[in-house]
Structure formats: structure tokens, C-alpha cells
Amino acid sequence: MTTIAVAGKGGTGKTTLAALAVRYLIGKGETPVLAVDADPNSNLGQTLGIDVMLTVGSLREQGFAGQRDIPGGMTKDQFVEYKMSEALAEGDGFDLLTMGRPEGAGCYCFANNLIRRFMDGLAGGYRHTVMDNEAGLEHISRRTTRRTDVLLLVADAGVRGIQAARRVLDLAAEMKLEVGESLFVLNRATDASAVALMPEIERLELPLAAVVPEDPGLFTAEIEGRPLLELDDDAPAVAAAGGLFDRVFSK
Ligand SMILES: Nc1ncnc2c1ncn2[C@@H]1O[C@H](COP(=O)(O)OP(=O)(O)O)[C@@H](O)[C@H]1O
Ligand SMILES: [Mg+2]
Prior knowledge:
Layout: E1 2-7, H1 14-27, E2 33-38, H2 44-47, H3 56-61, H4 76-86, E3 88-90, E4 94-98, H5 109-122, E5 128-133, E6 148-156, H6 159-174, E7 179-189, H7 191-203, E8 208-213, H8 216-224, H9 236-248
Parallel strand pairs: 1-5, 1-6, 2-4, 2-5, 6-7, 7-8
Antiparallel strand pairs: 3-4
Adenosine-5'-diphosphate (ADP) binds next to helix 1, strand 7 and helix 8.
């Protein structure tokens, strides 16, 4: 069982890589997969073709914490588990849990606590867990999950994205995240941009594991609102991500 978390600056391709990881695992029959959308700007559901009806954040707004709503005969833990399972959307070969945006001024502690408790119990029922994150790493801090086997740092083909990936890597070390392996992915690259950026990637000692090309098929899928699960196996980005995931999930 592998837990993989995707991180990096906004707009670099985190959600795309997370969706392609889920797609890869389904294709290999490595199911069921637990997909977790831990970005408040949730859109992993869309890329997986799931209409998200309920988020963990919205459960909180409904008074998730209130003792008085608990039906008789249920313990608080049972109630939390029951409500969380309502927020778990079922796909073909995977389930999706969407964190959403918690109410209030950005304190994720409450939702984090709940999701950690729930996921600790839940994750054991899945072959693999794929977590799409916001840039800041809050949800993969130790409060959310115990261990991340692979941290995928995504940057698009520019110096700023690469430097942001380095900062995320440093942040993970500072937060003492339990990470098995960190891998750097250069996304949306052309041959020329990959060559031009290599010195910076080396200078920052980023653990480069894959170069994923700019793929017009992703743009088309986005415009047409088609889930990435439907992309062809030989689409350039899918093929490149496949090589990466062969390595990630072979352990
Ligand atoms: N390799 C790629 N080729 C073409 N478009 C891409 C590629 N990777 C991502 N995109 C596009 O870039 C945009 C941002 O990607 P997304 O995965 O949503 O980023 P993030 O989750 O980091 O904000 C989306 O429109 C997506 O379709
Ligand atoms: Mg995203």
C-alpha cells in the first residue's frame, strides 16, 4: 500500500498528476484507490468525473461538532464516522473524499483532526491513497496523515515554479513530515524548456524523476469537461506520467 501526496505551486499540474495517478492505478487493477482532495479550491472530483455533493468542510458547517445532533445509541466517534462516510463519493475503482473549504478564518485544525481520525481507519481498506494538496502542505502535516510514502513535487516549466518546489521540499523537512521519498516532476515542458531549466533543477538539488510534456489533449479535456480517466493511454502526458508511476508504485 502506497500513500502518495502531490504538492507544488498553484496551477502547476498537481490535480492533473493526482488524477493521472488514480487513472494509472485503476488501469493496473490496483484498486480500490482512496483519492483525497485536500485543496480548498477543490477540483480533483471534476478531473475524475465525480460530482462532489458534500465536503468535509460543509459537514463542519452543518454543526458536525455538535453533541446534540447525535442520534441516540450512537457514540460521538460512530457519528463522526457515519457523517464522514456520507462525504465519501464512490467512483469506479476509487472513492473520493473532498476536504473543501472549512468555515472561518483558515483554521483547518478541526477538519484536520476529523479527517486524520477517519483516514487512519479508512485508508486501511484501500490499496493506495492519492492526495491532491494545496501549496502550503497543511494537510500533509503530521496532523493529517501519519506517513506519506511518496511526496510528488510538481513544477511547471519556469524558474519560479522550480524554486517554489524547492521551498515546499524545505518546508516538508522543517515540518518534519514523515516522507519516504520526495520526487520532483517537471510538468508542461517542451524539449527546449526542459534543457534550459536543467541547470536550475540541478543547482537546487531537486530529485528529478519525470518530465511530463505539454499535452494539448489535457487542454481539450478541460474545455470539454471530460474526466482525465478517459484520456488515451498513449497521450503524451499520460505516457510520461505512466513511467513515473511505474517507479512510484513498484515498491
Ligand atoms: N502536461 C500538461 N499539458 C497541458 N496542460 C496541462 C498539463 N498539466 C496541467 N495542465 C493544465 O494546466 C492547468 C492547471 O493544472 P492543475 O492540475 O489544475 O494545476 P494545480 O492543481 O496545480 O492548480 C489545467 O488547465 C490543466 O489542464
Ligand atoms: Mg489543483
